[in-house]
Amino acid sequence: MWLIFQTHFYIYNHPMSLSIGIVGLPNVGKSTLFNALLKRQAALAANYPFATIEPNVGIVDVPDERLEHLAQFVRNDFGNKTGDREVPEKITPTVIKFYDIAGLVKGASLGEGLGNEFLGHIREVDAIVQVVRDFSDENVIKAGAVSPEEDIQTINTELILADSQSLEKKIEKMGNSFKFPKSKEDIQKVPVYDKLRQIFNQGSFAGSVIWSEEETEVMKELNLLTLKPMIYIFNIDEKNLKTNSIQTTILEHYNAIPISAKIESELSGFTKEEQKTFMEELGISESGLDKVIKKSYEILGLQSFLTMGPKEVRAWTIKKGVKAPQAAGVIHTDFERGFISAEVVNYETLLPLESLRKARELGKVRLEGKEYVMQDGDIVEFRFSV
Q1: DSSP-assigned beta bridge partners for residue 140
Q2: Is the separation of the CB atoms in 323 and 102 below 8 Å?
Q3: Deepest in the core among 5, 161, 181, 260, taking most CB within 10 A?
Q4: Beta bridge partners of residue 343, listed in sequence order
């Protein structure tokens, strides 16, 4: 007997986790930026019963205007209420965890400041956001900050030194097996470790070279900081954000995002309408935090698919290139294990119709199999057998 379930009646809290570590020298505006994140979290925390909130972690939603539109489309199909319950009962965006790392100082790799604590936290994140001071405020002491380029070099050097020390400890632990490898595992490790040693000695990141799949697999246990994607944020003066008077050459070199942490802090305390008005006055179309979140998705190769129904409208995070069964597994492992098919319509196709029911009647909803590669904005109902 086949049991067919559709995802809008069968939702599990099994999200793909995405975490970002915020780093920077002291007094660069890192804490101001993180506090802005916390303000956003405070307004959203009730929506995430699965989230454990720690003092140094801010959990924020990934902005996605499609969810509100889908919620209205569900109401178009099912009405505003089912009994005494609102339709949909929940709207759940996907989320990102931001870790606030203690201010990094020169010598952190040797334990200076809170270096060891810093390194312990950051090794677990998916990507690193490096906040760089590019604002002028005589009331805020420049703690080691000289210029954006030199500050970046200071932090990058500490990351390289930390990875180098971690590598040397692994090599030391191998003992004679490093010089005379015998096992298959050691034979695979030695050339990779040698290559890494040369890269670090040159003052370069592990991510500065292309690695094969086999080499990448070997490096997994090292959990290297310099292999993680890096986003640079230049914390600029509010006046420069308004006039767009920014060092564009430097920004382009680092592919950096210019933001004003002060403005982000102010924005996070406003309502959506107040934010819109304030940003229009500043001449900006979206907040710096939203830009950071979108950039994080971009560098990590992520995208979202959507589910909709009277119980919940929700976004789910997956890697680009993922096929339908693996996407189903993000919701629940049973979906992937017993995958039969997926009913799919993309958001752009659904938008003018404003109704999933109408999309079905017009034949816009496709039936896809196991080899279907998911696209950003796909609205899906999975069928599976148990």
Answers
A1: none
A2: no
A3: 260
A4: 367, 381
Q: What does the DSSP 8-state code read for residue 28?
A: S
Q: Is 134 helix (H, G, I), strand (E, B) or coil?
A: strand
Give burial (CB, 10 Å; 0-12/13-18/19+) of 309: buried
Among 113-117, 136-140, 237-241, 282-286, the range scoring the smallest mean pLDDT is 113-117
Longest pairwise C-alpha distance within the chain: 74
Q: What are phi and psi of 131, to 5 degrees?
A: -90, 125
Paired tokens of 156? 């990058």
Give residue 306's Cα distance to chain centre. 17
Q: Which residues contact 368 (CB under 8 A, 6 or more apart)?
A: 324, 341, 342, 343, 344
Strand order from edge to edge, sheet including 127-134: 57-61, 95-100, 19-23, 127-134, 230-236, 257-259
Give me the pLDDT at residue 213, please. 94
3-state SS of the chain: helix, strand, coil percent to 5?
A: 45, 20, 35
C-beta separation of 307 from 379 below 8 A: yes
Exposed, middle or buried by CB within 10 Å (0-12, 13-18, 19+), for 278?
Answer: middle
Q: Please state the length of the chain.
A: 386
Give dist(CA 13, CA 109) in Å, integer: 38
Give the Cα separation of 92 and 73 in Å (integer).
Answer: 15
Tokens (6 digits) for 252: 């382009």
DSSP letter string over 43-106?
HHGGG-TTPPP-TTEEEEEPP-THHHHHHHHHHHHH-SEETTEESSSEEE--EEEEEEPPPP-T
Query: Residue written as tokens 């589910």?
Result: 307
The reported pLDDT for the residue numbered 44 is 46
Per cent of the chain over pLDDT 70 is 81
- How far apart CA 13 and CA 50 sit, in angstroms, is 7
The 10s digit of each residue's pLDDT in 196-236 is: 999 999 999 999 999 999 999 999 999 999 999 999 999 88
d(CA 85, CA 381): 22
Tens of pLDDT, residues 342-372: 999 999 999 999 999 999 999 999 999 999 9
Q: What is the pLDDT of residue 100?
A: 79
Assigned token pair, 123: 């090794």
